[in-house]
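Subject: for your reference before the review

Hello V.,

The reviewers asked for a structural picture of the protein, and I figured it would be easier to keep everything in one thread rather than splitting it across files. Below is the amino acid sequence we used in the manuscript, unchanged from the supplementary table.
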Amino acid sequence: MNRKQLSIAALALAAALTACNSGSKNQTPDGWVIKNEVKDIETIDLEQIAEAIEVIPIATDEPIDDIQGLSGSSNDFIAGNNRWQKFYHIKDGRLVGKLDAVGNGPNEYRLLYKFSYQPDGGLFYGYNNSKGEIMCFQTSPFEFVSKSPINIHPFSMLTLGRDQMLLIANPPLEECKDVEYQELGDGSTMRKIKDSSIVYKFDGQALTKLFRVAKNSSSSVFTRSGNNVLMSLLMPQHTLYRYADDKIEKILTIDYGDMEKPEPETKVETQGDLIMVKTVVNGDYSEGCYHPQLNGSTLAYWHYTVINDKGHNCLAIATPESVRNYEVRIGGLNLNVNPEMIDNGIYTMLIQGDWESKINADEEMSETGKRIIEAMKGNDYNPVILQFKLKI
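And here is what came back from the structure prediction:
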């Protein structure tokens, strides 16, 4: 799609949103079901759909690993490396602290594969899978505070305050009624819990069940939105809830129709002493409601869609009248926009790697693309922060 076509797509989007918002209610329609079968994915430039675009090179005196996951606010967050071993505290565009307590000793961990940071109070929590406990650290500098054993393995977690958090997990094994065992090549078995998941509240001592989800919800996520929490739960359709003041309110449901993700198939392959467990999903599908933003009766959210074996990270803009799906690009770069966090309307993602490989020589460089390349050039392969707001 050329620049003129991108502009036409952006004008069509703006007209659609203006028409819908001009007559829409201030609140989400009761029983709203978004039917999104992702029949068409449009390509649009970030500058056509976003505003307040910021490009911020992280100021640091030491290298930062490849990042996988952010938690916190737009100007004060924790970034975890792609092995969930090192955690970087980035505040106002500067690295202010690092946690690297990899080990088996007191107050150490092998990895924290789920984590959550609450800037108010400066508390960082991570789930230590090897010891079955949630560890708490004060920032920054990082200092160990406490650890709390739990008998669940959370898929997702969000810190609400000191020793207060939400978790999504399968029930403890002793409470599970639907467990599948599969023989591995070495004579051992692999356990798969098929029970429905549960949303828990944890106070540092005890787990409280808030409600049960209709099926295993390992792709479910929490998003902080002002004083509320938005919960995207797979049950089996994606359902968006609002959590506030210990009350849960259903907001809307996303129906992917024929694009619903089929049940994955687990395959076990052996090569000598090596055992490989692969999860295979056949067919076209869509899943997820990531980083949702609700503005009156307009919902923006990101999802992952597979069509003809090709994956797409998409932005959906949904109103009661229509749904449009976009792959958001940055003109002149080999880069699709796929944010890792949203904080009160501000999306954040980190861009890393070799700046030369990011340039698309066959396309005119956009102003945002120029800013990103210049920031990457002077940042010695450390991440560059990209932040923006959607025009909704």
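For the response letter, the relevant points are probably these. The longest strand covers residues 285-295. Residues 19-25 have pLDDT under 50 and may be disordered.

Happy to draft the paragraph if you're swamped.

O.
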